[in-house]
Amino acid sequence: MDVVYILRAWYDNCLELRYSLRSLENIEHWKVFIIGYKPDWITNVVHIPAEDPYEIKSLNALHKINIACKDERVSDDFILMNDDFYIKDKTEIKYFHQWTMHNQLCERRARWNNWTYVNKLHLTYCLFPGWNDFSIHCPIVYNKDKFLKLQEHYDMTQGYLLRNLYCNHYWIKWEKIEDCKVRNLAEMPKEFPTFFSNLDSLIITDEFKEALNNLFPNASKYENRK
């Protein structure tokens, strides 16, 4: 399968992406597509320029995923990666969830959190009450035709969580894992799991950058070394 990244420009020239691309050595994959912004240090990828035409982040993400789904060069099934997703060990990409959407809602509401995200989770939960929450921080496989057909059944401007919508609508077979998103240095594990992610602000800390460099020290074929 091909790997697809959807990107917008970042002030740090996508340092997270550098390590994410290095981590691809741990999965079998074909081409890498980058849709949106492309840092000047990247090579050996297929770049598809794309703007962010909406003020809402989730609609821009949907816009770029649709571009991937309509591009004949992208494999029918593709792995969607985020620039801050990392794969520490040799593995294969499956469909993973941590718990139900109800559990996620209760946990999010119990502490101060991103209420925009909570509202989107609630909207999606109303479609599939009691069903699983797939919105964890690891890669996911989308089928191009299925993803596009999904939009014939739902009003995507409502802001549903795409992973939950896709996996629950199609009754995807899943495996349960513990989600790992490192939000601060105090939460940084001594032993990172196979899949992990980080809060954007963490990448500016020397400690986290050192941890990533220790895990993924070797430049990938996607880095221009000139």
Shape summary: globular
Describe the oligomeric state of these chains in a short phrase: single chain
Number of helical segments with 4 or more residues: 7
Read across the widest sheet, the strand sequence of neighbours is: 3-2-1-4-9
- CA(first)-CA(last) distance: 29 Å
Radius of gyration: 17 Å
Q: What's the number of extended β-strand segments? A: 12
Mean pLDDT: 91
Largest sheet: 5 strands, mixed
- Low-confidence stretches at least 5 residues in length (pLDDT < 50)? none
Q: How does this model look, in words?
A:
There is one protein chain. The chain has about 230 residues and is α/β, with parallel strands linked by helices. The chain has seven helices and twelve strands. The strands form four sheets. A five-stranded mixed sheet has the order 3-2-1-4-9. Strands 5-12-11 form a three-stranded mixed sheet. A two-stranded parallel sheet has the order 6-10. Strand 1, helix 1 and strand 2 (about 30-35) form a beta-alpha-beta unit. Helix 2 (about 55-70) packs across helix 5 (about 145-150) and helix 3 packs antiparallel against helix 4 (about 115-125). The longest helix has 14 residues, at about 55-70. The mean pLDDT is about 90.
